[in-house]
Specification:
about 60 residues, mainly beta
Length: about 60
């Protein structure tokens, strides 16, 4: 298994909308039933951030 983690991003967009697609990624663009929109799907790399001294969670009822 790879040490790299990715998140699947899928957005409905209209012509002229702006969104961030990572460099070197080719998004998949599909037509949808909603007039004036397309679905854009791509993988976005996620970076895990370790948290030191993370206390245990306490739940209050």
């Amino acid at each position: 298994m790879s040490a790299e983690t990715y998140r699947l991003v899928s957005e409905l967009v209209r012509p002229g909308d702006h969104f961030d697609v990572p460099n070197g990624v080719q998004p998949v663009v599909e037509g949808v039933d909603r007039r004036g929109f397309v679905r854009v799907t791509y993988l976005k790399q996620v970076t895990a951030i370790p948290i030191e001294n993370d206390p245990e969670l306490e739940y209050v009822e």
